[in-house]
Amino acid sequence: VTVVEMMDSLLATADQDLVKILAKRAEEIFEEIKLGTGVTAMKDTGDGVEVSFKKVADGSEETQTFEKVLVS
Fold first, then answer.
1. What is the pTM of this model?
2. Are 53 and 61 in contact (CB under 8 A)?
3. In whole angstroms, what is the distance from residue 63 CA to residue 68 CA?
4. Which of 7, 26, 52, 66 could form a disulfide with 41 if both were Cys (CB 3.0 to 4.6 A apart)?
């Protein structure tokens, strides 16, 4: 599982002392956490979903393919 968050931290409006604990645990559970990153496009390739990302800070872009995508 890869988590993508446009803000620079998880749960930006929550108490950051609590978020630090959550973030440490999440780093152990999830394959990757992309903070400060927006999703710019998604495309069904038949073999999965191709997702394009753009870093908010420097505008760098990348693409990865996933089996499934959950948007929330």
1. 0.83
2. yes
3. 14
4. 52
